[in-house]
């Protein structure tokens, strides 16, 4: 972690460009996260452990299951940092008053959001790399390089609506209730969206209900890359995820300005 | 900072570059799709001809190997594999109503979508196993056989010229026994060869009209149909009047007259014109052309190509005479007489499977519509011969069928454009022969071993060794040694035991004709494997097995050897299931019965 320590070079920049501000803010956010094993251990280990258990060791069909579940557990894996870094992170910082200090600092507000997005992306990349390596080594997953890349791309961009959800939650929830609320959303949503086991194992009613969940559409988009989705139109998935993104960004903005007025 | 980000990108790049890709697969996706269509499946959007009528753009449901229904659309609650055959035609497995079956005929036929063959003369020994296997649903590797077994002919008559000793009829008293014996052989119908005394051409002796009439009567008493080989109008009239159910071969001496039509109408008789063989007799060389059609070449064994390229000995029949035959068939067809498609394969210029497609083409060229021609090879046969629902796709029929790219009902030549074949509901992967393969130079005729000096070394090939089913986990045993045949000459004495253990037990000797055990020898320019043999037991069964490079399924010739030394000449043409150009080993073994055996071999050689 040494290389993440701020150096004099970083600080003594005379005319801070906006990019530098983003970079430095992201860097410090990352540093903070890497010093919080309570955050990064579960977010990294949960999806890996689940994938190893259900996708590789107790796989019902060694030919297809590891590949299928690699896509869904990767989705599960990137939703985690998005929800927690935003939801829990912001709520806790609000509770500690750190959020207010940052608001008062000359740093632009966008840096706050951007840094958290960067952290989520970096974390997502780590989760994706670990899961892909597990799948390739233990699950015998074989995809074309274009598919590996596209899958990673879909997973990272697809995590944005969950950042929005996290942001809104972080702004609405109290710091002590935020972890519980985020977990209450994260785990059931993951399960009901078919991230833990293929959606077609569910009764039809549950399969239909899953259409309401953003994680379901996220998983279907990922599965489309490897030709294992249920076959619905790609635009439906994109539209639902975009809608979730818009709605929760609006909610977050409302909460933010409401708080401002107070 | 920027350098670090750069390094991270490089690492990511390396990581994604490292992630494994699928192994490149050989592109046989097409047949992979068909592989899944077994026993229970649906073919949708096909133009389905069920043997009687056309169902445009319909689906067929096959369940447990049988046709359940044909409908414009079919629900799939059991989630069977579905193949979308839009723009393709599905027809019943074809029936060749006139062939002669031995060796690999039935698998050659299936390779071209002919799923049933009506044999019109073969030995009961050749027919018997197939008459039993046709009753089995798992008889999916070859066509079903129906047979007349031995034909009824006069002493020296047509049918006796092939060197096979057959019972012949010279008086009416013999008829009841003859028919009875055929019924015991398992014959499905009785076939007779007849030529009227009044006919101009008298190239073979023939049974008398009285014997023919007695045959008809006796067959009918035994509930068998009588079909009669004729080659002229007057004989055809006699045959129908005598009570035959149908005539085989159209005739070339003249065109059918109204009298014959009237007779056939009243008797509801049918005709199997066998244009394919008639065209060959009259000097058409369509066989040779067929052998060159690229769509078929790869699916024909070298033997089949050879059969297509052979000419008949000159019969002196002009091509114009063939026109008479065509006119006769059109005339009969227009009068409502049933016409059935039969090729008479493998007579010179014809071969199993391929020539039935040629017969369909001839029927169309003679004036039938493509649909009527297809009917003649499917539904029409099922109504005339006791073949059950073969040749149809009616509910309950075993799903033997052919998927054809194109529309054979408007262009009969499309019938050869076979995309998939099912036999009894099981997808049949067509056998493909490698045309570009290089073979060893053909072996010349000559001695293999006289067994004077060595029981191992041979003049050609890599020698002789002992061979038993112990190779396959069996328990048979064998020893070979040289022994004195008479005062001066020696022979190879083979003694051993055939024991229970492997499903196909064997024990004997094996000869490697190539330079080594992996190089197949090219026997294509040889005609016979010849050896002297004697058995310890009377009529001791012996099998000659030929293995092709890379295959564990031999082509088999069985013989019975006597106690005295005798020379046996095994025609290599008998081994047509394998490619004679790459024979990796020739085994001479005992397979039955269980227990001790001893046999002697001498003067093993190849002859032209």
Automatic annotation (TrEMBL), chain B:
<dbReference type="InterPro" id="IPR051781">
    <property type="entry name" value="Metallo-dep_Hydrolase"/>
</dbReference>
<feature type="domain" description="Amidohydrolase-related">
    <location>
        <begin position="90"/>
        <end position="425"/>
    </location>
</feature>
<protein>
    <submittedName>
        <fullName>Amidohydrolase family protein</fullName>
    </submittedName>
</protein>
<dbReference type="InterPro" id="IPR008979">
    <property type="entry name" value="Galactose-bd-like_sf"/>
</dbReference>
<dbReference type="GO" id="GO:0016810">
    <property type="term" value="F:hydrolase activity, acting on carbon-nitrogen (but not peptide) bonds"/>
</dbReference>
<keyword id="KW-0378">Hydrolase</keyword>
<dbReference type="InterPro" id="IPR032466">
    <property type="entry name" value="Metal_Hydrolase"/>
</dbReference>
<dbReference type="InterPro" id="IPR006680">
    <property type="entry name" value="Amidohydro-rel"/>
</dbReference>
<dbReference type="Pfam" id="PF01979">
    <property type="entry name" value="Amidohydro_1"/>
</dbReference>
<dbReference type="InterPro" id="IPR011059">
    <property type="entry name" value="Metal-dep_hydrolase_composite"/>
</dbReference>
């Amino acid at each position: 972690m040494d290389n993440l320590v701020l150096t004099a070079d970083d600080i003594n920049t005379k005319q801070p460009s906006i990019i530098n501000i983003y970079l430095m803010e992201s860097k410090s956010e990352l540093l903070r996260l890497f010093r919080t094993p309570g955050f990064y251990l579960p977010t990294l280990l949960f999806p890996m452990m689940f994938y190893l258990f259900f996708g590789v060791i107790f796989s019902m069909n060694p030919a297809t299951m590891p590949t299928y579940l690699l896509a869904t557990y990767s989705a599960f894996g990137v939703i985690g940092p998005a929800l927690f870094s935003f939801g829990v992170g912001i709520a806790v910082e609000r509770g500690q008053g750190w959020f207010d200090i940052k608001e008062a600092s000359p740093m632009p507000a966008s840096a706050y959001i951007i840094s958290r997005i960067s952290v989520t992306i970096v974390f997502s990349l780590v989760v994706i790399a670990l899961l892909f390596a597990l799948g390739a080594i233990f699950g015998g997953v074989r995809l074309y390089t274009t598919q590996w890349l596209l899958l990673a791309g879909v997973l990272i961009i697809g995590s944005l609506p969950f950042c929005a959800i996290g942001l809104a939650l972080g702004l609405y929830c109290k710091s002590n209730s935020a972890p519980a609320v985020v977990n209450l959303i994260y785990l059931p949503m993951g399960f009901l969206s078919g991230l833990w086991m293929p959606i077609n194992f569910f009764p039809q009613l549950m399969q239909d209900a899953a259409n309401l969940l953003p994680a379901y559409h996220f998983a279907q988009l990922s599965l489309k890359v490897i030709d294992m989705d249920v076959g619905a139109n790609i635009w439906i998935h994109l539209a639902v995820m975009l809608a979730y993104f818009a709605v929760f960004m609006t909610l977050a903005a409302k909460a933010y300005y409401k708080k401002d007025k107070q | 900072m920027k350098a670090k980000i750069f390094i991270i990108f490089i690492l990511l790049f390396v990581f994604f570059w490292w992630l494994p890709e699928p192994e490149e697969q050989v592109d046989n996706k097409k047949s992979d799709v068909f592989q899944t269509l077994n026993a229970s499946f649906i073919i949708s959007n096909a133009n389905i001809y069920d043997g009687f009528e056309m169902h445009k753009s319909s689906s067929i449901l096959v369940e447990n190997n049988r046709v359940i229904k044909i409908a414009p659309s079919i629900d799939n609650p059991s989630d069977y594999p579905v193949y979308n055959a839009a723009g393709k035609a599905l027809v019943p497995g074809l029936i060749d109503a006139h062939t002669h079956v031995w060796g690999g005929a039935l698998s050659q036929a299936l390779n071209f979508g002919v799923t049933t063959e009506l044999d019109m003369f073969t030995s009961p020994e050749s027919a018997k196993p197939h008459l039993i296997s046709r009753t089995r649903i798992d008889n999916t590797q070859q066509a079903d056989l129906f047979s007349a077994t031995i034909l009824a002919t006069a002493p020296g008559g047509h049918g006796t010229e092939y060197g096979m000793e057959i019972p012949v009829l010279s008086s009416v008293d013999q008829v009841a026994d003859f028919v009875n014996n055929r019924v015991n052989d398992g014959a499905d119908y009785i076939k007779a060869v007849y030529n009227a005394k009044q006919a101009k051409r008298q190239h073979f002796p023939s049974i008398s009209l009285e014997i023919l009439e007695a045959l008809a009567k006796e067959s009918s008493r035994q509930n068998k149909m009588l079909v009669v080989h004729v080659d002229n109008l007057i004989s055809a009239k006699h045959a129908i009047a005598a009570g035959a159910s149908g005539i085989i071969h159209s005739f070339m001496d003249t065109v059918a007259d109204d009298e014959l039509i009237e007779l056939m109408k009243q008797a509801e008789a049918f005709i199997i014109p066998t244009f394919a063989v008639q065209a060959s007799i009259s000097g058409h060389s369509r066989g040779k052309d067929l052998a060159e059609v690229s769509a078929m070449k790869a699916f024909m064994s070298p033997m089949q190509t050879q059969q297509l390229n052979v000419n008949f000995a000159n019969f002196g029949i002009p091509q114009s005479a063939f026109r008479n035959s065509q006119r006769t068939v059109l005339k009969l067809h227009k009068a409502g007489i049933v016409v059935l498609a039969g090729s008479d394969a493998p007579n010179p210029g014809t071969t199993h499977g391929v020539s039935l497609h040629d017969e369909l083409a001839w029927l169309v060229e003679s004036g039938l519509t493509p649909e009527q021609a297809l009917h003649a090879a499917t539904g029409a046969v099922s109504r005339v011969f006791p073949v059950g629902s073969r040749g149809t796709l009616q509910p309950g029929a075993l799903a033997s069928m052919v998927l054809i790219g194109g529309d054979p009902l408007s262009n009969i030549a499309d019938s050869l454009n076979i995309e998939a074949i099912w036999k009894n509901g099981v997808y049949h992967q067509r056998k493909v022969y490698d045309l570009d393969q290089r073979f060893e130079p053909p072996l010349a005729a000559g001695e293999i071993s006289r067994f004077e000096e060595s029981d191992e070394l041979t003049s050609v090939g890599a020698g002789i060794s002992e061979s038993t089913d112990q190779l396959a986990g069996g328990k048979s045993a064998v020893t070979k040694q040289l022994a004195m045949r008479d005062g001066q000459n020696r022979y190879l004495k083979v003694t051993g035991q055939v024991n229970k253990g492997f499903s196909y037990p064997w024990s004997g000797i094996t000869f490697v004709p190539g330079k080594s055990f992996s190089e197949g020898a090219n026997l294509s320019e040889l005609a016979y494997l010849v050896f002297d043999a004697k058995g310890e037991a009377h009529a001791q069964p012996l099998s000659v097995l030929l293995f092709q490079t890379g295959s564990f399924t031999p082509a088999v010739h069985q013989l019975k050897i006597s106690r005295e030394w005798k020379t046996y000449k095994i025609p290599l043409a008998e081994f047509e299931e394998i490619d004679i150009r790459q024979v990796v080993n020739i085994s001479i073994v005992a397979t039955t019965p269980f227990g001790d055996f001893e046999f002697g071999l001498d003067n093993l050689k190849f002859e032209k």
